[in-house]
Amino acid sequence: MAILETINLNKVYNSENMENTIISKLDLKVNEGEFTVIMGSSGSGKSTLLYLLSGLDHSTGGEIWFHDQPIHQKSEKELALLRRHSIGFVFQNANLVPNLTVWENILVAGYLNQGEKEGVRQRALSLLQQTGMEDLGQRLPSQLSGGQQQRCAIVRALINSPRILMADEPTGNLNSATSQTVLDIFDSFHQLGQTILMVTHDVKSACRGERILFFRDGDVADELRFDRQDESLERREKLLTNWLLENEW
Amino acid sequence: MNGKSVMKSIFIISIANIKRRILQSILVGICIVLSAMLFASTLGMLKGINKPFDVLYERLSASHILLFYDHLQEDTDKIAGWFLEQPEVKSVLDYVPYFTVQEPMIHHGKELDLMVNLTEHLDKNLEQDQIMILHGEKKTHPGMGEIWIPDHLATNHGIQIGDTLGMPVSSGLYPLIVSATVVDAQYASGLFNPTRAWVAPGSLTFYLPVGQLTRLMMGVRLNSPHDIPSLWARFNQAHLYNGQMLEYSLFKSVFLSFYNIISAVLMVFSVMAILAAIFILYTMLSGTIASDYRLIGIYKAQGFSPGNVVTIYVLQYLVLAVVSLPIGILGSLLVTNAILSSLVKSIGLVNLNFSFFGPVAITTGLFLVLVALISFVGSRKAGRIKPVEAIRSDPATGSYSGGSFSWLLNHLIHNVPVFLGLRTLLANKQRVLYTGFSLLLAIFILVFSINISHSFARLKDNKAAWGFEDSDIQVRLNQKIALPLEHETFMELIKNEKSVATVVPYSYCSATIPASQDKAMQEVNGKVYNGDMSDIGLVNQTGRHPENADEMALCLLTAEELGIEPGDSLEVFLEGQSITYHITGIYQDISNMGRGFRLPGSAMKELNPLFKPEFYAIRLHEGSSVENFKQHLQEVYAETVLIELSIEERKAVRSTIAGMRSSLLLVSLFFLSILFAVLFNDALMNIHEFRLGFGIFKTIGMTPVQIRMSLVYRMAVLTIACLAVGVPMALLLSPPLISGITSGIGLAEFPYLVEVSGTILVIPAMLLFTGLSVWWASGRVLEISPKDLVTN
Ligand SMILES: Nc1ncnc2c1ncn2[C@@H]1O[C@H](COP(=O)(O)OP(=O)(O)OP(=O)(O)O)[C@@H](O)[C@H]1O
Ligand SMILES: [Mg+2]
Hints:
By secondary structure, chain A is an alpha/beta fold.
């Protein structure tokens, strides 16, 4: 079942009398429960696509359906509400509010959506435990490592049990060891049924997904889907690398 | 339920923002505290000021109209009877004998600076026109040989209970013992001359020859002071009254004159302060939003709606307002209470409670609405921020305007701190604008206060502009000695004194302006000059001095009230005759609250050939010493000549001027503290904006001192620019501004004197003040988080 669908989506930037088409006639489906990865070279429009899908930016044509809701027709306010309940966002930078503690950063996002304070606290606590952050709740972002900051950002994105978690190069700023822990967290939430849409150009990160879309010239140019037997990461990585070589990416 | 928890999120962020920018929050708070305090104090003053006088008037059952007349000319019973029949009249104090002591009374060998009406305190005074005893034995009446004097007279001259006052009589000084100091509703102000003192019932005949005791005073008490004009107009239609009349509104305006000026000045300044506060809050908020740019994008990505984002900032400012307002209002209550209770104490009122509910409610309401409005309008920008652009923006580069300034560094300036200072100055034009505005305002107020204060202080060198004779010394011939000097003889002698340049004799007289359709009859006090008025510096606002016997000049407010301009004519009663004068000029005079007239000596000669001037205004030659001349006068003329106290030596005038100057000082300090808050904020914002740049400069070896100096240089350049604009602007605009304030008390053209040295001193003082403020502010920041400069 598609949770997110675009039909004939277009995005054109008009800068200095130059029309710059970033996304053209894109038809895309993201299925519920899947871990979808979008790969593409730098500047190909991956971030732009995520911003469009989450309603942070406006398209210049086409339709975006979130479940049965037309994102392309919604007002600012409706989009804000939709993001609150249904979409979690993780950036390349953790983008935590610097003057709030980890705990507060998460609660603020939680209170924004839910009425019940105790429920938010419980969920925050369990998410912090799942990400190994339970001892760091009272720290300020500036007192955390990059990986810890990113884990906090993930918890913040998940606090409202969004129907989809979007991530834009979540490990782009991290070294490889730290990246793995963060990606493991994505994996574990996916195991629990979380729908994830992640943008990356890093092979190691992309392997975490079960479906990889290759983005080029404003459209999905190719698609790779791992089978059930492609369980181990090493195997997936090998497959993906070979595939990239074969298709001259 | 849902809405509540959203508010909770917003609240957490708002409070965190207040804490994160704690210094800036404190500055916003100070700004609100100070302007609310000034505003509430002004309202409190305006509201509270009328009450003491009216309460006093009520408690003492004081007469609204006082008639002073000669019992040989008027029929007391007829007048009293007429008033009693009128529906507006509550009661009539039919008559009280009084005597105007012709010479100043003497205390410890010194003359009092107010003339005195010695009035008998009768049993009727226990009903109407009661007297409140402040110090001394509380008796029904003064005893024989005793005198009750107004408390202000005692305070100003240091007169103690038990002291003796000498009343000049033909045989010398008659001693009266001060047995009480009192408050008397009509004469509660020391600015009223003559004032009134009380003696035992029936005692005047013991002190004075019966032939001189023809004067009576009658008091009329009304149900409401509003009825005075119509009642008085009717009275004049019914009677041909030749005596004098003084009434409630005159007593009140004299009593309140000083406080009214202060309130007017405060009002002007509180409006300025509120404007300054609006401006400062708005620009501070804009700066905050600019530096929160990226953060706001992140809030939005999390699902904050534009309205939620605006609420974050509105709430933040409202919380600050709610915390600061009580402090400001409390401060204003203290200030207002201090001022009003000094007023109340001086007239002996106790248990007088002022209700400040109105001012407090208005201030609270106004400021909450203002703060909400400012923060709402200011943060709408934040609501409109596009999340994608904000998120994509590099956190290190702010959103300030760029432009290439390297040419500055290449060609003009090789000193890095100076370059950085200029660079930061040019980088954020909006903030330069608002800091510059605050600087301008402070410079304006400073220059204004210095010069206005100076103009008051130099009253003595600029007397003519205030309406006083510009003489070096004023004397009077002693009539109480066996062989008084004749006017003509004295004129001969004094003119031949070698240090004397000019002598202009003058005297006081009072005229009655007959009632017209819409105006009651009016008693006006004027002066008659036997000589050229310009010789003693007197000037007119418009027109010229009166020279011929049928010419007259009018004081500003009298002319205004009568709707008269130079060239018009005016009918008055003078010396029992009705004469029509051509009005030749309009002048201003503060001494009589802007009311009065001037006549040439020839006019008086025609009415009364025996008229003799009382006073002599003497001007000495350039360079002659006034002190020496005084001594010379005393040696040569001994007791035949009495030297008058000059205007600036009068106690009441001196304390009024001192009060005026200290309130100007207070206001200047207030604006300097606002300026300090602005400078402080400005330095913080700068460091915040350029922290990465400063961090990099630090890593390449710039010392913290150099970084701070760059901010100091920046402020110095801005201060110099503002001084160049602000000082001339203040010099130009101060006279019309202050004249607007003082025109109500008869000074349409405020005697404005520029104090060159003080004005020039503003320049280094401002540079020093801004430099030190910025230095201190930047020091605080570098201390707090030196690491932050490098590590974002
Ligand atoms: N506001 C804008 N105006 C004009 N062009 C823009 C704007 N924002 C982005 N672009 C352009 O759109 C293109 C796509 O940008 P986008 O950030 O989506 O790329 P990306 O695939 O995320 O790249 P990267 O992997 O480097 O993050 C780029 O060429 C960029 O220059
Ligand atoms: Mg990107």
